[in-house]
């Protein structure tokens, strides 16, 4: 596989992902909260940023668009349904559309709930999905502009992906998510084991993202929710945890 994905930790807990295709000489930045450290990370590796892909309009996902675009001349792709909220977009995409890095295809999925037009980028041949603020390690995004029913559908759809699929989310929320997950699912042995791992990784200053679909199926209370009401109850409980 000629694809490489590198995470740049920025702000309090954001990850900006750089996906590099060596063969095509392309680098896609996913959800640049800021520009400077992203440009530096690319320069360090001799990578030319050719595209930005946004998952949703929140400032901590698009804040670096303008500066990176000005510095590199890259093309910015993002959700059609949020085009009026992202003034740096060149290409708008929605469910059923494709985004390309070199010869590799990313399916665009509509995953509304955190925001009304939130999208995800799934690269089947690479086994990678960029989910923005929809799915987190042992958690899910807050329901700012959507419903529990939408988030439940998103979780179910992501859960159907191959277990090996690597999930790149946009925040390091893993430890606090694990505490809530343990609170609602105290006897889950895989969850207990994973939480210990995550605590050790964070103590060493390591990122806990990407995660995998298999890990989330086993330990994520929102992906394991039985139905919409169950997810709604969990989401409200987490908001007040
Ligand atoms: Zn967000
Ligand atoms: Fe965010």
Task: Tell me what the structure shows.
It is a single chain. With 241 residues, this protein is an alpha/beta fold. It folds into 2 domains: 1-102, 4-Layer Sandwich (Metallo-beta-lactamase, Chain A); 134-241, Metallo-beta-lactamase, Chain A, CATH 3.60.15.10. Helix content is 33%, strand content 27%. The protein is built from 8 helices and 14 strands. The protein has a 6-stranded mixed sheet with strand order 1-2-3-4-5-6. Helix 4 packs across helix 8. The chain is globular, with a radius of gyration of 17 Å. The structure holds zinc ion and fe (iii) ion. Residues 58, 60-61, 133, 170-171 line the site of fe (iii) ion.
Tally of distinct domains:
2
Q: Helicity, in percent?
A: 25-40%
- What is the string of helix and strand elements? EEEHEHHEEEEEEEEHEHHEHH
CATH T-level fold name of the largest domain: Metallo-beta-lactamase, Chain A
Bound molecules: zinc ion, fe (iii) ion
Strand content: 25-35%
How would the blueprint of this fold be written?
Blueprint lengths: L2 E8 L3 E8 L4 E5 L5 H10 L3 E5 L5 H4 L2 H8 L2 E5 L11 E3 L4 E4 L2 E7 L8 E5 L4 E5 L2 E2 L2 E2 L7 H12 L6 E4 L4 H11 L4 H15 L7 E2 H7 L8 H12 L2
Parallel strand pairs: 3-4, 4-5, 5-6, 10-13
Antiparallel strand pairs: 1-2, 2-3, 7-8, 8-9, 9-10, 11-12, 13-14
Helix pairs in contact: 4-8, 5-6
Bound molecules: zinc ion and fe (iii) ion (FE).
Structure described in brief:
With 241 residues, the protein is α/β, with parallel strands linked by helices. It has eight helices and 14 strands. The protein has a six-stranded mixed beta sheet with strand order 1-2-3-4-5-6. Strands 7-8-9-10-13-14 form a six-stranded mixed beta sheet. The chain has a two-stranded antiparallel ribbon with strand order 11-12.
């Amino acid at each position: 596989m000629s694809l490489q994905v590198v995470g740049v930790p920025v702000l309090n807990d954001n990850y900006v992902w750089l996906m590099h295709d060596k063969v095509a000489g392309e680098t896609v930045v996913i959800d640049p909260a800021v520009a400077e450290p992203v440009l530096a990370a690319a320069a360090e590796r001799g990578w030319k940023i050719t595209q930005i892909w946004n998952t949703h309009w929140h400032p901590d996902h698009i804040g670096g668009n303008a500066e990176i675009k000005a510095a590199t001349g890259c093309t910015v792709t993002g959700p059609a349904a949020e085009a009026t909220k992202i003034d740096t977009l060149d290409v708008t995409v929605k469910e059923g559309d494709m985004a390309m890095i070199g010869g590799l295809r990313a399916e665009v999925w509509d995953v509304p709930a955190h925001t009304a037009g939130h999208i995800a980028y799934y690269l089947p041949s690479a086994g990678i999905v960029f989910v923005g603020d929809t799915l987190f390690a042992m958690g899910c995004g807050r329901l700012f502009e959507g419903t529990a029913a939408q988030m439940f559908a998103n979780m179910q759809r992501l859960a159907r992906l191959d277990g090996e699929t690597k999930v790149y989310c946009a925040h390091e929320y893993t430890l606090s998510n694990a505490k809530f997950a343990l609170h609602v699912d105290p006897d889950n042995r895989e969850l207990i084991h994973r939480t210990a791992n995550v605590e050790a990784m964070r103590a060493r200053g390591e990122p806990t993202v990407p995660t995998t679909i298999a890990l989330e199926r086993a330990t994520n209370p929102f992906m394991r929710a039985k139905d919409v009401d169950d997810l709604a109850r969990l989401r409200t409980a987490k908001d007040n945890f």
